[in-house]
TrEMBL record:
<feature type="binding site">
    <location>
        <position position="295"/>
    </location>
    <ligand>
        <name>substrate</name>
    </ligand>
</feature>
<keyword id="KW-0210">Decarboxylase</keyword>
<keyword id="KW-0456">Lyase</keyword>
<dbReference type="Pfam" id="PF02784">
    <property type="entry name" value="Orn_Arg_deC_N"/>
</dbReference>
<dbReference type="GO" id="GO:0009089">
    <property type="term" value="P:lysine biosynthetic process via diaminopimelate"/>
</dbReference>
<comment type="similarity">
    <text>Belongs to the Orn/Lys/Arg decarboxylase class-II family. LysA subfamily.</text>
</comment>
<comment type="function">
    <text>Specifically catalyzes the decarboxylation of meso-diaminopimelate (meso-DAP) to L-lysine.</text>
</comment>
<keyword id="KW-0457">Lysine biosynthesis</keyword>
<feature type="modified residue" description="N6-(pyridoxal phosphate)lysine">
    <location>
        <position position="78"/>
    </location>
</feature>
<dbReference type="InterPro" id="IPR002986">
    <property type="entry name" value="DAP_deCOOHase_LysA"/>
</dbReference>
<feature type="binding site">
    <location>
        <position position="390"/>
    </location>
    <ligand>
        <name>pyridoxal 5'-phosphate</name>
    </ligand>
</feature>
<dbReference type="InterPro" id="IPR000183">
    <property type="entry name" value="Orn/DAP/Arg_de-COase"/>
</dbReference>
<comment type="pathway">
    <text>Amino-acid biosynthesis; L-lysine biosynthesis via DAP pathway; L-lysine from DL-2,6-diaminopimelate: step 1/1.</text>
</comment>
<feature type="binding site">
    <location>
        <position position="335"/>
    </location>
    <ligand>
        <name>substrate</name>
    </ligand>
</feature>
<keyword id="KW-0663">Pyridoxal phosphate</keyword>
<feature type="binding site">
    <location>
        <begin position="292"/>
        <end position="295"/>
    </location>
    <ligand>
        <name>pyridoxal 5'-phosphate</name>
    </ligand>
</feature>
<dbReference type="GO" id="GO:0008836">
    <property type="term" value="F:diaminopimelate decarboxylase activity"/>
</dbReference>
Length: 432
């Protein structure tokens, strides 16, 4: 079946800014032709345009500071938890969100300033909270009353040099807002496992105000991910404003990214305007505002490269099977995220409507259910754009897959920041 690309669709426009085509028509990422990257690092590989992440970080930090000077942009690191990414965003002056001991360890290993760490999680163990307190984490977000019990116990046990025995905390509020996004990544509704509904949040606030070990700085709200309109963000600010005046308001993350031609997410500036307009009306003028973008900080900087292993036609379908799939990109099977794709050496022009599928033993292992690919052949290089967020983080060893390398590109240079797993790595934890 022939398929014409949407005439308005600018395929290259879905790739990181600065992506070009070389003389042969092949994609050039960060100044490096995609075939050269594949030849050097093999496939599958996750290529990340360092310049694109830095530019996005500055756009967030500067945009927020221009609208609300007493503020900080914080990277929700679960979207891409490798030390090279932590280091890059720490260098750009962002704070770092961590959920759990693993992300905390990675952030510290990357040299992130502990004072800028925001520690999240709906099930923080005492061990993890102790790690955070002892590291001098600037902010711990209380998700439940058990967090308060555990923290008070830890602070009774530990005289922490960095905080002088007093740990700053925020209370995570569930405002009962249901943004238009996939259920699995909606977090602000009644029935969410995250945070406290307003009555319970009030109770936690009262309890924390009476604590001599925990210093209540304010409240936190995060209503979901891949949100493609600004209204839920504005509503979230209205909801936290109802809880009263605080020194700090952490307004979370969640801005959607443009995965497909059809996606029209708000710009960073539109998103900031929506929240800060409400903040100006309802929050104290001297309050500090934090935001926590994850997906939108890194998604558009990433490109996954695969090699075509098989092309199979029948029953009206063309299956183009590649050497990766749900082992390196779970976004499709978890949230039915749609991705576009292209043959990296001839990305533009007319194509055959294909199902781009992975190598794993499940029918749900699809990278794109319907994408035009130009004359796909075994051995072709396939590029899937907008894979910077939640792919590396969710990569796994299903079917014995070795997790792919992460390769940074910048100004024509490339370097691996995470190497590909080896079969020896797969065996390492296995005790025969
Ligand atoms: C995941 C998460 C974020 C980031 O969400 P994105 O949709 O990736 O921007 C921010 N804050 C908290 C508490 C989160 O859990």
């Amino acid at each position: 079946m022939a398929a014409q690309r949407d005439p308005g669709a600018d395929l290259v426009g879905l790739f990181p800014p600065g992506t070009t085509l070389d003389g042969s028509g092949a994609l050039v990422l960060g100044g490096v032709p995609a075939p050269e990257l594949a030849a050097t690092y093999g496939t599958p590989a996750l290529v990340v345009d360092e310049v694109a992440i830095r530019a996005r970080a500055r756009r967030y930090a500067d945009g927020l500071a221009a609208r609300w000077p007493n503020s900080r942009a914080t990277f929700a690191s679960k979207a891409f938890p490798c030390t090279a990414v932590y280091r890059l965003l720490a260098e750009e002056g962002l704070g770092i969100d961590v959920a759990g001991g693993g992300e905390l360890t990675l952030a510290l290993a990357a040299g992130a300033d502990p004072a800028g760490l925001v520690v999240h999680g709906n099930a923080k163990t005492e061990e993890e909270l102790r790690l955070a307190v002892e590291a001098g984490a600037g902010t711990i977000v209380v998700d439940n009353f058990d967090d308060i019990d555990k923290l008070e116990k830890i602070l009774r046990d530990t005289a922490n040099a960095t905080t002088g025995g007093e740990q700053p905390v925020l209370v995570r509020v569930t405002p009962d807002i249901r943004p238009d996004t996939h259920e699995a990544i909606s977090t602000g509704q009644n029935g969410s496992k995250f945070g406290l509904l307003l009555p319970q949040a009030r109770e936690a606030i009262a309890r924390l105000r009476g604590s001599d070990r925990l210093r209540l700085d304010g409240v936190h709200v995060h209503v979901g991910s891949q949100i493609l309109d600004t209204a839920p963000f504005a509503q979230a600010v209205e909801a936290v404003a109802e809880l009263g005046e605080f020194a700090v308001y952490d307004l979370g993350g969640g801005l959607g990214s443009r995965y497909t031609y059809a996606d029209r997410p708000p710009t960073v500036e539109e998103y900031l305007d929506a929240m800060i307009d409400v903040a100006r009306r309802l929050l104290p003028a001297d309050a500090r505002i934090l935001i926590e973008p994850g997906r939108s900080m890194v998604a558009e900087a990433g490109v996954s490269l695969y090699r075509v292993v098989s092309v199979k036609r029948g029953g009206g379908h063309t299956f183009v099977a590649v050497d990766g799939g749900m082992g390196d990109n779970l976004e499709v099977s978890l949230y039915q995220q749609r991705f576009e794709a292209a043959v990296a050496t001839r990305p533009t022009g007319e194509g055959e409507l294909c199902r781009l599928v992975g190598r794993h033993c499940e029918s749900g292992d699809t990278l794109s259910a319907g994408v035009p690919l130009q004359d796909p052949q075994v051995g072709d290089l396939i590029a899937v754009p907008v894979t910077g967020a939640y792919t590396y983080a969710l990569s796994n060893n299903y079917n014995g897959a070795r997790r792919p390398p992460v390769v940074f590109v910048k100004d024509g240079a490339h370097r691996a920041v995470v190497r590909r797993e080896t079969y020896a790595d797969l065996m390492r934890r296995d005790l025969p």
